[in-house]
Fold each of these.
Amino acid sequence: MAIDREKFEELCSAYVLGALEGADLSEFRDAMRTADSELLSIYQEMQQVALHLPLMVEQFDPPMDAKRRIMSRIGASEPPARKGLVVRIASALGLNEPEVSVGIAFVLLLVVLGLSYYSILLRRSVVEKDTQISHLSDEMIAERQQMTVVREELQKKDELLKILQSPRIELAFMNGQEVAKSGYGKIIWDPESRRAILQISNLPAVPPGKDYQLWVIKDKIPISAGVFTVNDPEKENFFKIDRLAEVDKKNIAAFAITLEPKGGVPQPTGDKYLVGTPSL
């Protein structure tokens, strides 16, 4: 029959102090033969605590006649080996009655051992709680990042609705070119406020060190209308343009999107990905 943890801790605390005898000692040895990793860990920790107990006692010089008084009471025979530590601690505490002092010292040993083991359990608990807090913090950070993305998407949708509610709006459709044949997009803008929304789909993700750049072609001269990045090609991407360089569709020959060095360039240098003209 397997021993329960509470009984094992009780027997183990006495065993590491050399205080187990008879049936209790046999029971503990049987338990050790079938102990699982948790019980073995308890045994090892208690053993370590017991080994360090002498270091917990403040060292001081006993009175000169202490040995004579003790020996006169207990006789010249050596005390049992298992009581050596207990007797030394009792003497260090200044307890003069051997029978009483041995009992008190033994109780103190058990208290110290129990407190030390309890301290180990508390440290374990603190480590586990710290790990849980760390995991929760990571989850909260991820959720905040997701909320930021959602808020940005909602803001873009709100901007699109504001433009669509304007008394007059203009529209240009853009088609994929050789490097992005499946890509497409459109630009919707309000000529009065000069605000615009660029919507694109199926453009490849932007490689490191690059940006997409939108151009307004006016009188055969490309004018930059801003840069943007695509991280997820499979979803529709919306980008807000606060002030479009040209809003009169009669003056706009075309819109184009090219892939340029990060941050954009004064004039296009990369391949065209989308090209379109304003709707008449």
Note: Helices lie at 5-16, 22-33, 37-56, 66-74, 84-92, 98-164.
Amino acid sequence: MEKLKILIPTDFSVQAEFAYLMVKKIEEGLPSEIHFLHILSAPDTVTMDENGKVETCGEIDVRHVEKQKEIAERKLQQLKETYGSDIYVHLRLGKITDNIVDFAQNNQFDLIAMGTKGAWGAKEKLSGSETQFIARRSTVPVLSLMCDRSDLVVKNILLVHDFSKPAHENLVLLSKIVTAFHTKLHFLQIANVKSADNDKEIEGNMNQFAQLNNIKNFDVHILNDKDVENGVIHFNEMNNMDIICIGTHGKPGIFHKSATEKLINHMFKPIISFHLNN
């Protein structure tokens, strides 16, 4: 069986450990090739060549950067000693989010797995979370989680979507997980209008979506709520889902309120985000 190629960005925090434990849970059903990536945050004036030589324009002490690089290399080696020599480790220099997105896409990863502390209030409005920005930009699906899910049993996956225009979406990863763990997939649409005719139309669209994406084992759910974030939270209070899967259009800007990014920042369930085709 072809291995799932998974990237875990790490800052050597407990959140990165949570991501690794979740990946090992996925590995119970899907053989995986696990890569850890650490980014040394640095301005564009600091560079590192293929041999690991660091150069700066002179404004930043190269010895300081080299010291940080040595510390990071030791910690990456400790990861190999802790988790096994079959994992891969990588070190890059530059902007954290840009490097993670570029590394994942250029090396054809199937998934980016990230532990996150989330973001609320002023922090969310001003800076958000790194995971949020990576999910926005990355064409590689992103798995985010806030806590230890090593005891997770993957039985029910919630696919939150606007089914009004059924289309073929990039659900390769989701399909692999569903097949490997024999899970039930639950379609959920948050509706602003509650009526029998509207529900019937949505259910018809859901069935068409399932046909277009070759999905067999699924249930359909329609919930009337004020917005997607609240609807997903309320649905999970009534139906305990194991993983939430939701698409994003990747629209940037402080005035675009993405339901996907809100859930990444606020919800303690594992979330898989993927880029929508339309």
Note: The first strand starts at residue 4 and ends at 9.
Amino acid sequence: MLAPFRLPNFWAEQNARARMQPIISLQFHPRDIGTVLIGYPEGAVIYSFKQNKATKVFHYHIPKGAPGGDNNATLDRNPKLLNAAWHPTGQFVLTGHDDGSLVFWDTKTGQKMLARTLTDTHVDKEGSGAGATMFGGNISGETTRLAKIAWCAHQDPDDTGILIAGGNIPPATGLTFLELGRTPNYSTSSWQILEDHFANPKRQRVLPTPANLEVLDFCLVPRRTPWFAGAHDPVAVIALLSSGELTTLSFPSGYPIVPCNQLPLSMSLLHPFAKVIAQSSVDRARWLGMTENR
């Protein structure tokens, strides 16, 4: 049954016209069950059950002259939020937006640390430095929709990476993994060191999926624990494709996994779709004596 406890729409405090905005993301703090990250279309808030209020607000704004994720520097805009996720230790928050921007926030101060796309950094900054990529060159153009993001950790929760569905430059498809490595110590690191950590991942790889099909959603398969939003030390990922099919990949290598001896039959039939079914008669005695063998 539903509990009598209810939370108001906290974004209405930021925008009085946003009362009907739905919650599109909800995630408990990985180390504090009394804190929850709530995502609305216009931004995200951190709510504390102990203080009974929204303690931090994250609102992504791109000024006119900055390219943003969609390379449209002619407008002053607030890209719609699509995803929000905690850093595995809860020190940072990552929000994904409909222009392809990935925005890192400091949960202690509520300040924006870095806005980037899969290829470009500082996309929210005006001037000649805006749009520079880690590979050189300029903003690469319009990107695909950010379907989902997950901030993963290895056995050490400070050794992290980000798995992203979408955000690629068409016609590229697949899952992208930004391997960030060990997070700098917050209390002893400068703001610049933390910003550089998110701007320059150790490695960026694409987990290949079937060509010309987008990944709409994915589910990480953790090695031991189902907690931490299922993103602690994952060994595999199950991805839902735009065709309705499933694909299973090892993580983070991206090698295909044969599902026949891993998944229930009902899921295996979606991996890929069954095209042909054969049938034959079996006498009752043999049918009742059948046992499953994997």
Note: Helices lie at 191-199, 265-268, 284-288.
Amino acid sequence: MPLPKLTLEEKKQALKKAQQVRSQRAKIRQDLKAGRTGIREVLEKMDSDVIAKMRVAYLLESLPRIGKVRTRKIMNEIGIDETRRIQGLGSRQRQALIERFGN
């Protein structure tokens, strides 16, 4: 299936929207890293497009003292695929993340 042909204005709008989404995700990551918000609050806002389409690994790496290696280990223990997005988490997986990281 070929990609749709976008006008110059549509391309500009798409780029602007993508930049806004990246900025919002960066803010969420900063809040997690600084402890201003917890994983429970983020997972409760799953209906937000910004959060729903974020990768779980990207979210976990934003937590203090959690890097790529620990993220991979945690995701394997819980049974979450490395490419899983937050909207694709099952209720047990969400609950396991909340129990693991408390707040």
Note: The longest helix spans residues 8-34.
